[in-house]
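Section 3.1: Structural characterization of target chains.
Under the original work plan, the team committed to producing a structural model for every single-chain target entering the pipeline before any wet-lab resources were allocated. The record below documents one such target. The sequence was received from the expression subgroup and is listed exactly as submitted; it comprises 338 residues.
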Amino acid sequence: MDIGFNANTMKAKMLVLAIATGMILTGCVTGRQYEELQALKNDLDTQNDELSKNNESLTTENRELSSQLDDANERLTALETDTTLMGNSLRKIQDQYDKINELNDILASKNSKLLREAAEENRALLNELEQTRLELQAKEDSLLILESEIDKKANALNNASSALEDREARVHELERLIAAKDSTANALKNKVSAALLGFKDKGLTIEQRNGKVYVSLEAKLLFPSGSTVINDEGKKALVDLAKAIEDQADLEIVVEGHTDTDAIKSSSIPRNNWELSVLRSTAVIEIMVANSKIEPSILAASGRSEFHPVDPEDKAKNRRIEIILSPNLNELYELIEE
C-alpha cells in the first residue's frame, strides 16, 4: 500500500522538476510563473504530507489486515482440519446410518411379516370369537326358552297344585257328602225296615245299594194275577211305607213295575207287559200320595216290563214292584260338576 503512495509522490516531484528545468533552460521564467510554480510546489508538498500520513495509516491498516489474514488463514487451516475430521466422522456416521438402514429394512420386513401373521391370527381369533359369541348367543336363547318353559311348567305346576288342592278339597267334600248320604240312606233303610217289619216274610225285601234304599214287593203281595188293582194287604204295606217317609226331606222316589216273561194278549188294557208294569207302578204311586203327605213332585212311575229279571228261573220273584228311595244328590252332583 505505501509503495503506491511513494510512486505518486515521485511522479509529482519529477513533474515539477521537469517544468522547472524546462523553464530554466528556456531562460524565460517570470516572477509570476515562479510564484505559480512555488504555489504548485507547496500544494504538492501539502499533498505529499497528507499522502505520507495516509500511507502511514494505510500501512498500519495493512499490518492489521495482514495480521487478521494470518488469523483467518490459521482459522481456515483449523476449519479444514475440522472439516477433514468431520468428513471422516460423517463417513463413519454414513456407514453406520447405512447399516442402521439395512437393519431397519430387515426389521421392517420381519415386522411386516409379523404383522401379517398377527393379522391372520387376529382374523382367526376374531372368527373364533364370533363363533363363540354365536354359540353363546344360541345357548343364551336356549336358556331363555328353557327358563320360559320352566316358568310355564312352574306356573302349570302351581296351577296343578292349586287344582289338586281344590280337587282334594272337593274329594274330601264328596267323601263327606257320600258318607252323609250313606248315613242318611242307612237311617232311611232302618226307618223303612221298622215300618214294614210286619211284611218281612210276605215277599218284601229291603236293601241298601249305592246310597239308595231299594224296597222290593212281590206282585202277589199287592196284586191279584194279571190285575192292576192293589189288594187290602198291599195297600196297608204301601200306606205304612208312605207314612214312614212322608216327612223325609230331599228324597226322590221312583216306583218301577216289573213283570215275568209270560206274554199278555188282550184287546183291552193292559194289552202287554209294558202297560201292565206301568199301570201297576202308577197304582202304587196313587195309593202313596192319597194316604200321606208325600210331595207328588218327588215321585216317578216307571214300567220295566220283563226286561230286568232278578232271577230268570223264578218268575214269581221277577213279578214285583221296586220302590227306590234316593236321597237328593243335587248337592253332590253340583260339586262333581264344578
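Strands lie at 204-209, 212-218, 251-258, 299-305, 320-327.
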